[in-house]
Amino acid sequence: MKLWVIALCLLAACAGAHAETKVWQPAAGHTQVPLWPGTPPDARPMPGPEYTATGKKLIGGKPITGVYNVSQPTMTVYAPTAKNTGTAVVVFPGGGFQGLAMDLEGTDVCDWLTTRGITCVLLKYRVPSIPYVWQCDCRPHNRELSVPSLQDAQRTMRLVRSHAAQWHIDPHRVGVLGFSAGGYLVAEISTNFARPLYAPVDAADTESARPDFAMPIYPGHLATDDDKFNANVPVSRETPPTFLVQAEDDYVDGVNQSLAYYVALKNAKVPAEMHLYAHGGHAFGLRPTSDPITRWPALAETWMVTIGMIPAAGR
Description:
eight-stranded mixed sheet
């Protein structure tokens, strides 16, 4: 059995516990905004209608809600609840490109960012999609470029910048943060931001899709089984400053995913900061547990201060 199979355990547990055939909706007061004015580019059939599933397994004392069969990608904007810093972060939940851990690696993250004065933009990108193939329940090439989700990520970055004045965002301080497969999507958008993946649909597509900073958390798909770096992620000097977190006992994606990316960033002279912990496993999100790794958001805040994306606390 491939290690990536384990990565789906959380979402599989969700599906087996309590599933509802309904489109995911954010909490009251927030609205999903479609990314595309019509049919998304390169649209493919889904196994069925979109649905949510909440599992029995608890992380940080809470269950996990997964979202599946997303054919209509959306973004949900969460305005800062503290003094607005002008910074925005687009969040990519993980889920092995089969589903999305929409609370553990989505709304939970927005709850944190908004209290720090950061606008959080939660992306519900298309899944299932490559490198996962639902017709065979497999990944024929685990390091393939995830084109549908990357199209959605590029479009979201451009939409955020096109609405910068309306949302009180500095268009030069828009970052990305993602977990597991979403961490891979962070690396993809950080290195393939200028790659033409769809025909422009409106004026928003004249904006840049390049993140100003990036945070892949326990990312996957970045290294081969023999630790060779994924050539589909062409790191260059234009790759944004990057903050990495992973546990050494992560037996789903493995710590070498972050190590390989860090080395590629270092060789390209991209400012990078990496934090490795002995314990934490995979898919811990940012819910507090007894593992020190769950306190990584404080380190991320300090890092964002040092690169000039947010002011120090109290300022």
